[in-house]
């Protein structure tokens, strides 16, 4: 039985940041490869405004084209009810709402204050509860914000607690710009754990500064056992051009295995998927 879980983010968090336009068929091929690796959850795409994120404009086509493996839940990001309805029409198994711990990032990412964004999630939560659809919640910029500077841990705890109270089954804590350090991650977790138990939390660490593995170790010490990662280290940060993206799944899997954890993944398929992901980056057409 796996004792840690990696939630694969590459097709969504990775490819949303690619400057090149990746054809839907290639995204589908990547998800199909990932479906054979042993993940229980794969974030496939997002139903957001195509004006804001043109890379995800093919969300319905991608979700509609994948070969669904038994036991795998295929997830999509949904910022509002429009997005939720699109995700459900395309048969997403679960959805995710995403909020920010800082006002600056909330405005930049959602064109809304934190409070307004939480208000928009209420109808999603209601509809999802009626339909029995699990909803995950993200909190972004949990240690550092590119607009507002260092994020006070209490602000993260407040937003995480709101999402949890609304009915999110798990709260994923995003170091969006990869500037967290084991000490700041630890301080943030200390505050969040007063509101949400460790088994309902996940770490979502970008590897911009090469500290994601250290941040994962700090989180393991606090009892966190779910981590988000992107195969091949796909992605980047729009606020730090040229920076690395999500921490690479194959790197986290090897790191965890070295500590005696078993993420339950097929390393050969992971390596194949990582090579495929890197090739996608290299050969996509210019957007
Ligand atoms: P807005 O411009 O304030 O919204 O954007 P609006 O309601 O005025 O709508 C603007 C247009 O978008 C309208 O179309 C809407 O119909 C359309 P128009 O009338 O102009 O033709 N629209 C939609 N279209 C498709 N799907 C939808 C949708 N909603 C409205 N769901 C909005 C507000 C929330 C839509 C916008 O800000 C948005 O889409 N933001 C998403 C940004 C995003 O995707 N960011 C990346 C994901 S978050 C992330 O990466 C962080 C994470 O990885 C964790 C971490 O690392 O921290 C999760
Ligand atoms: Mg992210």
UniProtKB/TrEMBL annotation:
The keyword Lyase applies. GO terms for molecular function: hydroxymethylglutaryl-CoA lyase activity; metal ion binding. Keywords: Lyase, Metal-binding. It holds the Pfam family HMGL-like. Coiled coil: none annotated. GO terms for biological process: ketone body biosynthetic process; L-leucine catabolic process. Residues 4-271 form the Pyruvate carboxyltransferase domain. It comes from the Bacteria. The keyword Ion transport does not apply. PANTHER family: HYDROXYMETHYLGLUTARYL-COA LYASE (PTHR42738). Belongs to the HMG-CoA lyase family. This is Hydroxymethylglutaryl-CoA lyase.
């Amino acid at each position: 039985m796996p004792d840690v879980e990696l939630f694969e983010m590459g097709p969504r968090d990775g490819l949303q940041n690619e400057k090149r336009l990746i054809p839907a068929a290639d995204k589908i091929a990547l998800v199909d490869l990932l479906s054979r690796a042993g993940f229980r959850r794969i974030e496939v795409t997002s139903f957001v405004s195509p004006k804001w994120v043109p890379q995800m404009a093919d969300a319905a086509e991608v979700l509609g084209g994948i070969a669904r493996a038994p036991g795998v839940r295929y997830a999509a990001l949904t910022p509002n009810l429009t997005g939720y309805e699109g995700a459900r029409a395309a048969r997403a198994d679960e959805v995710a709402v995403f909020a920010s711990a800082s006002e600056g990032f909330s405005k930049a990412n959602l064109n809304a204050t934190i409070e307004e964004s939480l208000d928009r999630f209420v109808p999603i939560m209601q509809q999802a509860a009626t339909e029995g659809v699990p909803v995950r919640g993200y909190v972004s910029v949990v240690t550092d914000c590119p607009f507002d500077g260092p994020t006070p841990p209490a602000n993260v705890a407040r937003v995480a607690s709101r999402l949890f109270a609304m009915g999110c089954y798990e709260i994923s804590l995003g170091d969006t710009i990869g500037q967290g350090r084991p000490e700041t991650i630890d301080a943030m977790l200390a505050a969040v754990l007063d509101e949400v138990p460790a088994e309902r939390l996940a770490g979502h660490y970008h590897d911009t500064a090469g500290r994601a593995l250290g941040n994962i170790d700090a989180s393991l010490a606090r009892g966190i056992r779910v981590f988000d990662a992107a195969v091949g280290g796909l992605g980047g940060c729009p606020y730090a051009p040229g920076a690395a993206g999500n921490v690479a799944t194959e790197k986290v899997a090897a790191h965890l295995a070295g500590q005696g954890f078993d993420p339950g993944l097929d390393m050969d398929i992971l390596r194949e998927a990582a090579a495929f992901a890197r090739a996608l980056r290299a050969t996509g057409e210019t957007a």
